[in-house]
Amino acid sequence: MKYSYKVGCSTENLRGIRDFIRGSLKNHGVAELDISEMVLAMDEMCSNLIIHAHHCNPDELFELHILLEPRKPIVFEIVDDGTVFDINQFHEPDLGNIIHQKRKGGLGIRLVKSIMDKVEYEQASGMNICRLTKNVQYR
Amino acid sequence: MVQIKRLQEDGTDIIVPIGEIDASSSIELDLTIAKSVGEGYTRLLVDCNALEYISSAGLGVFMSYIEEFNDKNIKMVLYGMNEKVANTFEILGLSELLIIVPTKEEAKQKVA
After folding, report:
1. Residue A95: which of B22, B64, B97 has the nearest Cβ?
2. Do A47 and B23 touch (CB under 8 A)?
3. Beta carbons within 8 Å of A22's beta carbon, 6+ residues apart
């Protein structure tokens, strides 16, 4: 099953994105806590994309896909045409540094890497696809 | 969307975020904490009973005050988190850096 959501690059839309993910993942036998973690990781990815790649321009759109197959890992795709920021290349600062520099960033990527099992990037027909995979236990 | 209430009990400022704190609303939390500190409170409680969700933007706000609070001897304790919100703090190991307790009574003892 594939769920899709197209949305403008405004942080005001993050709530709608979370609702879309929660709604898509429920009734598939995925544990509540797993769902909440995936919602969080995708919120972080979309926040970064909206703020850093699209400078919160609500006229610029991106697409979110969720691919669900029985007993298979859950796959999320973020499709956009902005600048690619590969989080695998990013070395997140340690927590001590974040506290000392009063940085409010860097935590989100740490969350995504802790929650998701794989983050891959692909470019095709002028579009970027960021694919995140999560292994889950189905009930 | 988050709505943040404040109330004062026995010289302690209680900050009550209601709803979801994300990249669009974390500024509200930041402004509220800054206001409390600006008014001279040195004992802050954050009542998380009505906090439904928090992303790294909100966590970053709490983190950004740790050093200032240590320097100024300001105590901040968070309490009443639901399982999902508590899990978010735990994933990053923030439960080690911030004081988080289950109940308001315990929180009050911690700042006393």
Report:
1. B97
2. yes
3. A35, A39
The answer to whether B52 faces chain A, any CB pair under 8 Å, is no
> In this structure, which topology does domain B2-111 adopt according to CATH?
Transcription Regulator spoIIAA (3.30.750)
Find, among A64, A84, A82, A83, the residue nearest to A74 by Cα: A64
Q: Between A85 and B37, where is the model more confident?
A: B37
Strands B51-54 and B12-21: parallel
Domain boundaries, chain B: 2-111
A11 near B CB under 8 A: yes
**In this complex, which of A37, A51, A95 lies closest to B23 when CB atoms are compared?**
A51
ipTM of the complex: 0.93
State pLDDT tens for residues A37-61. Answer: 999 999 999 999 999 999 999 999 9
Partner A contacted by B63 (CB < 8 A): yes
Pairing of strands B43-47, B75-79: parallel
All domains of chain A in start order, with CATH: 2-134 (3.30.565.10)
User: Lowest-pLDDT range, A89-93, A135-139, B17-21, B53-57?
Assistant: A89-93
